[in-house]
């Protein structure tokens, strides 16, 4: 008899957790599992990438309604509309229910039968990410969450050890806490990475950054570092792949510094792997990460890595063993960019180290751990 699974996700936008969930759904054995996916707000770039075997359910299609209900739940604990809608849409019994992106919607799992195994996946840094940390400064809210959410779950899964450590600082410890890296389709990543990108001039050096244009991604530091590298007289470009609310602000910063020919914005791309592979070095200047999918993908492709000392990122390169890590300042980051530009041996060495490091994303090993979790 098939085991019945329910996944819950806030939306299917182009984020790392949503991407990881889609990859996982494509790897499940549907002879063994009957799977449903509940999307709180039915929108996002991954809507058409869900496997046909998955039964898709949705609570709302309006972002405004979801944001309003989320605000009321966090501020005054008003959950009645969510509960009513959830129970009208989700009318089946499940062996295991998974909130794949831990947030206030994780609480919906408690409207299922008591016998259902309830799991949440933490894809966030609860200390360094200010957008989430600010809610837990309210002691009354914090105690409610500790008792009424995490105290009732069977298992809490973290996508990195850094995410686990930060969670413990805020929420404390619980009986079953595990670390499980996201699943990646290495064959698909490598195949897509082989696509040529015409805008990359082979005569100059290319740094590539990929991710949503959000303040937490720290692109301002990357732009300032690029300005310092420009002053050194090196011939290079920085390619930023992604879109988001900070786009206008970041483009103005580039223009003000006279970097229009150096910092190139490519917007959202369905195939970011080609941009990563066509570049010389993959860079990441985030303020906060749990387990950045795009950094994992760059390692799988075998790109030399340059990052700032950020939770989640530093774990992936083992604190500088498998990539170059700097402090979070533009001067230090620029210095390492210049080193990469002028040292071909350094490029070769860190490419080899990335290829060695990608072994931690062994698909078979990660799937075995996931099956152990749900079975």
Short description:
The chain has 375 residues and is of the alpha/beta class. The chain has helices at 16-27, 63-76, 80-89, 130-133, 139-150, 161-171, 186-193, 219-231, 247-256, 272-278, 293-301, 313-316, 330-342, 344-357, 363-374, and strands at residues 3-9, 33-41, 55-60, 96-99, 117-122, 155-158, 177-179, 205-210, 236-241, 263-267, 281-284, 305-308, 324-326. The chain has 15 helices and 13 strands.
Strand content: 15-25%
User: How many beta-strand runs?
Assistant: 13
The CATH top-level class label of the largest domain = Alpha Beta
How many domains, in number, for the residues?
2
What is the residue-mean pLDDT, rounded to a whole number? 93
CATH architecture of the largest domain: 3-Layer(aba) Sandwich
- Note the run of SSEs as H and E: EHEEHHEEHHEHEHEHEHEHEHEHEHHH
Main sheet overview: 7 strands, parallel
- Morphology: globular
CATH topology of the largest domain: Rossmann fold
Q: Which structural class best describes the helix and strand composition? A: alpha/beta
Total helical elements = 15
